[in-house]
């Protein structure tokens, strides 16, 4: 009986390792529709959660990856602080702050998408000032 339990446990552990290898992240196009929507969602959440009164906008996509066989996207973004407040309409066309107010951040976001419901969930975010 103990052998059967041990064998079953070993098979479960090996199966989980094979499963995790199969579902690693791979590069995806920065123009992929759900990646773009996930990126917009991540930037929106960053602006909402940030205590800064000014909005940040995308400067550069440093990494765009998707988890195989899922709708989870990993993105590494560089963003800059704008002169617009975060609840203004057109942040994309808002100029960046210059001089003492100039600030850039680099963030890594992990976003899960339920495409049939157009629902986005921020699983993780890590940001550092540049």
Could you describe the 3D structure shown?
Residues 27-114 form the Cystatin domain. One of its GO terms (cellular component) is extracellular region. It is found in: Secreted. This protein has 130 residues and is an alpha+beta fold. The chain has one domain: Nuclear Transport Factor 2, Chain: A (Roll). The chain is built from two helices and five strands; from the N terminus they run αβαββββ. It has a five-stranded antiparallel sheet. The relative contact order is 0.18.
Count of DSSP-assigned helices: 2
In quaternary terms, these chains amount to single chain
Reading side by side through the largest sheet, how are the strands ordered?
A: 1-2-3-4-5
Output the helix-strand order: HEHEEEE
Net shape: elongated
The Rg value, from CA coordinates, equals: 20 Å
Class per helix and strand makeup = alpha+beta
* Nearest-integer average pLDDT: 87
Q: In percent, how helical is the residue content?
A: 25-40%
Which sheet architecture does the biggest sheet show?
A: 5 strands, antiparallel
| Strand-residue proportion | 35-45%
How many strands appear in the DSSP assignment?
A: 5
CATH topology: Nuclear Transport Factor 2, Chain: A
**CATH class placement:** Alpha Beta
Subcellular location: Secreted
Pfam families: Cystatin
Main location: secreted
Protein name: Cystatin domain-containing protein
């Amino acid at each position: 009986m103990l052998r059967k339990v041990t064998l079953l446990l070993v098979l479960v552990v090996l199966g989980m390792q094979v499963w995790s290898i199969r579902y690693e992240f791979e590069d995806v196009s920065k123009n992929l529709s759900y990646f773009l929507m996930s990126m917009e969602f991540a930037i929106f959440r960053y602006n909402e959660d940030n205590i800064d009164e000014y909005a940040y906008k995308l400067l550069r996509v440093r990494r765009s990856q998707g988890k195989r066989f899922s709708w989870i996207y990993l993105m590494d973004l560089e963003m800059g602080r704008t002169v617009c407040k975060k609840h203004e309409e057109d942040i994309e066309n808002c100029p960046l702050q210059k001089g003492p107010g100039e600030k850039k951040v680099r963030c890594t976001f992990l976003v899960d998408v339920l495409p049939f419901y157009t629902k986005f969930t921020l699983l993780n975010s890590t940001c550092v000032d540049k």
